[in-house]
Structures are given as structure tokens and as C-alpha cells.
Backbone:
């Protein structure tokens, strides 16, 4: 719903337990698939979205259910029983920003949940082994990228929060929430993994989104980021 008032992310996923010998997430095929999808869509202007007949992320409903099935929250339970939706969107007020694709489920009351894949703003996420920067500089660059990602959907409201979580397989996970006190249907929270030039997000949206346990979503989603990126290229 990302400002198109349907589903939102800024919501996302993150990945398999990080440990010695575990390779970085390969985002290359997903990046190519996203670019190819966007090339086929004619956006009339920024801030619009175009509904898709089918979700371009293979097995998206199954991946969403795996990420959320043990999250004990009324919004999540409603969303998992809701009707499916898929769209590709041009960001609000950011005509030069890259569009993103989202697949999920949303009720008539705009309680929703889903998966989104977006191109990472700017030059993407600084790699862990960037010898030209200190750890502090790498973290600062990643924080700035997350802030740019949030801003591309319109001017960040006063109730925007961005919190860095864990590093995972060549990327970094963030918890991002937008709360709009006067229009709770537009509230959204997500767990977003930033890696390479791709952002993979698991999100919830609608009244009560800011009460959903994002730590629980992140924990359930640790093995799913690579599957989402691969699913976009296979969908």
C-alpha cells in the first residue's frame, strides 16, 4: 500500500541465519527481472500504480504465509484471509525514482500484508568488505540509503521511524514504520532487507500496523529473502 493506500511496505523480509561460510544473497537475477518488468509498464505519472493480473513473484502467497503464520496479531490474521493483490507502482513525488513491485493480500478495511521488491536508491548498499570506508562510514551510508528508500514514497511524515536491525548475508535489515494518526488506514510497517541494488520487504499495512511485532516477522523471514529474489526472476 505504499502511498497508493492499498498495501504498503515499506515491508520486508530478511534472511537465513548468518554464519561463517554462508554466501551473500545473490540479488543479480532479481535486479534484472525487476528492470525487465518495469520496462514493460507505461506509467502515466509518478504516484500511480498499475494492477497486475498475476503476482510476478513465484510462490508469493506461500512465502507470505510462511513469514507471518506464527505472528500473533489481529491485523496479520485478517490479512492472511484477505483477497490477493499485485501491482507495480511509480513512487510519489519522485519521478526519477525507480518503481517497485508488490504482492499481498488486503481486506476492504485496508488491513493488508505482503512482499515488495524495489531497486535500492542511489548506488545501493555499501558492501561489508569496502576497504575504502570505516565500519561507521558503511553504517552511515546504509542508514542514508534506508532513509532515501522511505522518502521516495513521498515526503516522510513526522511519524516515520527507521531502525537498523541485523546485518545478514551481505545486506542489512531495517524496521521502517509510517504512522499517520489522522488516517490509520495508511499506516504501514515493514521489515526491509537492503542488499546490493535490491530491497526485499515484508510489510503490513492499515490500522494497527505499528502494533505488529516486526522482530517476529524478521525471525520468521530469515530464510526467505533469497527465495523472494529468485521468485521474482522465475515468476
Residues:
Amino acid at each position: 500500500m505504499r502511498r497508493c493506500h492499498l498495501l504498503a511496505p515499506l515491508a520486508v523480509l530478511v534472511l537465513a541465519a548468518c554464519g561463517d561460510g554462508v554466501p551473500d544473497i545473490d540479488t543479480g537475477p532479481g535486479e534484472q527481472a525487476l528492470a525487465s518488468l518495469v520496462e514493460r509498464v507505461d506509467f502515466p505519472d509518478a504516484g500511480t500504480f498499475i494492477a497486475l493480473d498475476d503476482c510476478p513473484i513465484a510462490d508469493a502467497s506461500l512465502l507470505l504465509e510462511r513469514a507471518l503464520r506464527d505472528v500473533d496479531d489481529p491485523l496479520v490474521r485478517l490479512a492472511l484471509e484477505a483477497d490477493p493483490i499485485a501491482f507495480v507502482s511509480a513512487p510519489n513525488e519522485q519521478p526519477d525514482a525507480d518503481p517497485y513491485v508488490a504482492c499481498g493480500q488486503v481486506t476492504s478495511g485496508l488491513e493488508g500484508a505482503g512482499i515488495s521488491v524495489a531497486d535500492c536508491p542511489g548506488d545501493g548498499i555499501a558492501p561489508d568488505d569496502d576497504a575504502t570506508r570505516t565500519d561507521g562510514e558503511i553504517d552511515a551510508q546504509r542508514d542514508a540509503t534506508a532513509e532515501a528508500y522511505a522518502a521516495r514514497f513521498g515526503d516522510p511524515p513526522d511519524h516515520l521511524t527507521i531502525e537498523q536491525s541485523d546485518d545478514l548475508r551481505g545486506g542489512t535489515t531495517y524496521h521502517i514504520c509510517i504512522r499517520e494518526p489522522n488516517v490509520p488506514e495508511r499506516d504501514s510497517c515493514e521489515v526491509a532487507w537492503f542488499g546490493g541494488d535490491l530491497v526485499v520487504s515484508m510489510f503490513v499495512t492499515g490500522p494497527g500496523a505499528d502494533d505488529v511485532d516486526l522482530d517476529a516477522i524478521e525471525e520468521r523471514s530469515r530464510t526467505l529473502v533469497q527465495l523472494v529474489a529468485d521468485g521474482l526472476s522465475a515468476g
Notes: Residues 1-20 have pLDDT under 50 and may be disordered. The radius of gyration is 16 Å.
